[in-house]
Amino acid sequence: MRIEEIIRESAVFITQGSKVKCFFDFQDGLWPVEIDKSQISQVIQNLVLNAIQAMPEGGRIDFTVSNFRNPDKGNLLLDPDGLYLRIKVKDQGGGIKKEDMKNIVDPYFSTKKVGSGLGLSICHSIIKKHNGIIEVDSKPGEGAEFVIYLPANPVLIVQNRRKNELKMKLPEIFSVLLMDVEKSIRDLSFEIFKILKIKVDFAVEGKEAIMKFRTARKNSEMYDLVVMDLPIPNGMGGKEAIIELRKIDPSMKVIVSNGYFNDPVLSEFKKYGFNGVLFKPYGMEEMIKAIKSVF
To answer: What is the 8-class DSSP label of residue 114?
Structure first.
């Protein structure tokens, strides 16, 4: 689950039934962070609950999430060369007095008639465990703004940038039928196409694939691409299934997939009616290259 989804779902869940509304502003291309999803969800929920208690008559909470570099090394608590994800949570409550600011994360300190400081203390502890920091800026009568800095993962940033570059060059396809006897491969493919925002249907063997292909055409929901595994124990494999598929649609783009590199179908895939080849095991980059090769 992406950080945007964690923040949105956590905030909306807590504000249900209250007079408080949440508004979200997420920067495009947010840097990835390594987090415990349940703990960060708890942080967001505690901050939202704190804001609700500060606004008994209702109001709004604004979430602003963006990438952050430490400009001019201005924040001494952050790594001067670090990359961070910055999460701002601003409410319209009564604000916090200056003399109370230093005690705000004390679990035994609270200025509210309802609730305690325990939630903010937990937030501080969780963010600290994530090697981040949480700050608060507030003036009486002007609400409070909590700012969280979570370290971004440079390796994941590079990987995400590479994935985005690959996706930008991907042909415009919307629906794929993937036939593979291995559940692990189907599960992996589901995650790959989910990231690529491409709809995928699955079949375990050839007869099922042909049936789904015929049904899709009958319902005018045709596939843009078919990926077929070769050997299917106790079932029709890709070598036989491609013959039946070509009778239905000679122009369909079809990729053959197999983990046996010495299979003659892979080396001469066009001879057998396929448009491309995909060697198993594969990842996102291999899948994208195979798709691009046939379009």
So the answer is: S
Nearest Cα neighbor of 119 from 102, 104, 131, 130 is 104
Residues in Cβ contact with 92 at an 8 Å cutoff, skipping those fewer than 6 apart = 55, 59, 60, 61, 143
Taking only the tens place, the pLDDT of each residue in 77-112 is 777 777 899 999 999 988 876 666 565 554 434 444
pLDDT at residue 66, rounded to an integer: 94
Judged by DSSP in three states, 253 sits in coil
**Degrees to nearest 5, angle at CA 82 with 79 and 83:** 140
Distance CA 226, CA 209 (A): 9
Provide the 10 A C-beta neighbour count for residue 26: 16
- CA–CA dist 132, 152 (Å, integer): 10
**Contact 80/39 with Cβ under 8 angstroms?**
no
Give alpha helix (H) positions in the chain: 3-15, 37-54, 118-129, 154-168, 183-195, 206-218, 238-248, 264-267, 284-294
d(CA 67, CA 86): 6
Q: Is the pTM of this model over 0.85?
A: no
* Count of positions (residues) in the chain: 295
Q: What is the pLDDT of residues 104-163, one digit of tens each?
A: 554 434 444 444 445 688 898 999 999 999 988 888 888 889 999 998 876 666 666 666
pLDDT of residue 103: 54
> Average pLDDT over the chain, rounded to whole?
84
Chain centre to alpha carbon of residue 68: 20
Residue bearing tokens 């901050």: 47
Question: In the chain, what are the domains?
Answer: 3-153 (3.30.565.10), 169-294 (3.40.50.2300)
Asked if residue 281 has a cis previous peptide bond (ω within 30° of 0), the answer is: yes
- Return the higher-pLDDT residue of 281 and 207: 207
